[in-house]
Amino acid sequence: MAEAPSQCPPRSLIGQDTAAQLKPLDKIHFTTAALSALLGSAALAVPLNSTPYDNPDSNIFPDFDRYSDWAICKGKITKDRFPNLQAPNRDGGCVRYYQGIDMTGVVTEQHFFFKDGFKTACDCAAKCLEEPNKCTNWVWKHTFMPEDGGKRSCTLYSSPNLPTDVTLKYDLANSKGFNLLQAANNPQAGAPAPLTSLDAAGTIPDKFGVSGFMVQDQNGRQFC
Predict the structure, then answer these.
(1) β-pair type (188-189, 215-216)
(2) If we measure between CA atoms, which residue out of 162, 141, 119 comes closest to residue 212?
(3) The organism sits in which domain of life (predicted)?
(4) Which of 52, 113, 178, 215 is the most exposed place for a label (fewest CB within 10 A)?
(5) Pairing of strands 167-168, 110-112
(6) Which letter does DSSP use for residue 50 in this model?
(7) CA 217, chain centre distance (Å)
(8) Does pLDDT of 32 surpass 70?
(9) Model confidence pLDDT, tens digit, residues 125-144
(10) How many angstroms separate the CA atoms of 191 and 162, rounded?
(11) Tens digits of per-residue pLDDT, 70-81?
(12) CA 196 to CA 140: how far, in whole Å?
């Protein structure tokens, strides 16, 4: 009858001489046991809810290198101009936008027109990035205000429109940094996000209108 392979001695008893005397199969057992112990101790050191691959469906995000496939304003909103912009290359650009949607708001309303040098949606998005302490969303649309001269213009806000079932009334006495807040917009009634339009009645959609979001995180990184 063939002799059974010897069992691996406890790790505490294995020195250089002992390890050198191990048979090939013993070395495999020892290596596997040591690796298992190492992985086990590492797993215990990491909180159960912080493992990056605890669920195969956790990573729902596209490859960051494909950012440029969807980015607008590349070469205009650049990392040279905004060093903290989170984009994969110096060309930058913004990917958090809604074509043809007026992601409007009512708080800290600011208007900038063609006569002010705002010629494209990229000028509008850039203005929001320049004011991270006041602006979270921007809209490039026809406002039909006397100052816009029949052209699209830029509107900035510090909050977006609300969903249909939500209405908010702002306590102006205990609020700050909200101007402009028009009296007609307080309370702010929720509604479906309107389309950008080519006519004041809102009957002709404007596919070249656009709105978007900007955020600056606690580490100073900017996203748009």
Answers:
(1) unpaired
(2) 141
(3) Eukaryota
(4) 52
(5) unpaired
(6) G
(7) 9
(8) no
(9) 999 999 999 999 999 999 99
(10) 6
(11) 899 999 999 999
(12) 8
